[in-house]
Amino acid sequence: MTADTLTLPAAADSVPQARRFIRQQLVALGADGACDDAETLISELATNAVLHAKTEYTIRVARTDGRVRIRVHDLSSVLPRERHYGPDSTTGRGIRLVATLAVNWGVESEGTGKAIWFELAVDGGHLVSPGWDDDVDIDALLDTYDEEPTELAEPGPQAQARAA
Fold first, then answer.
1. Per-residue confidence (pLDDT) for residue 155, from 0 to 100
2. Distance CA 146, CA 142 (A)
3. pTM score
4. Which pLDDT score is estimated for 23?
5. Residue 9 covered by a domain
6. 46: domain CATH number?
7. Pairing mode, strands 104-110 and 67-74
8. Owning domain of residue 7
9. What parts of the chain have a pLDDT lower than 70?
10. How many CA atoms lie within 13 A of 147 on its CB side?
11. Is 158 within the bounds of a domain?
12. In a domain, 155, yes or no
């Protein structure tokens, strides 16, 4: 297992540095296929460290057994949680994005801080979701969904009053 780390300040301009570091490390580890998803996820976790933890954060990249593990440690003990905001919200989707793109992920308390980590396949491929097998016809499954958008319900009295 090879690993490398970088510590960055709690500043907005550190997020692009985090993305560059991830790409450089993954290319060096022969995991070029994971770069795009890794850059997306490190952007989320670095931004969370800057905006919410407000502490410096350390990124660690390691490769083992066909996967890369990327870990972001900050000094806040507040654990992240998945939130359910409305479709127009500009925040609250980071953990859901991590859970969607990563092969595996988790959060670990460490002293006064925490580490959020995720794993990606080195070739950028995604593993099949548990419970799915090669016999599933994805196209047929997708065809079962309506292609026509559903109509919105009539707005309630408060929305009608605001529109008037």
1. 43
2. 9
3. 0.71
4. 97
5. yes
6. 3.30.565.10
7. unpaired
8. 2-121
9. 1-3, 81-93, 126-164
10. 2
11. no
12. no
Question: Is residue 13 one of the residues assigned to a domain?
Answer: yes
Amino acid identity, position 157: P
From 94, 96, 4, select the one nearest 49 (Cα to Cα).
94
Task: Give the pLDDT score at 83.
Answer: 59
For tokens 């952007």, name the residue.
Answer: 43
- What is the reported pLDDT for 133? 46
> What's the pLDDT score for residue 149?
40
Residues 6 or more apart whose CB falls under 8 angstroms from that of 21 comprise: 6, 59, 61
| Residues in contact with 125: Cβ distance below 8 Å, sequence separation at least 6, in sequence order | 33
Residue in this structure with the two tokens 């992920």, named with its chain if needed: 105
pLDDT value of residue 91: 58
Calculated CA dihedral for residues 91, 95, 99, 101, nearest 10 degrees: 50
Cβ neighbours of 91 (radius 10 Å): 11
The one-letter amino acid code at 147 reads: E
Number of structural domains (the chain) is 1
pLDDT for the residue 68: 96
What confidence score (pLDDT) does residue 9 get?
96
Which helix (H) or strand (E) covers residue 107, if one does? strand 104-110
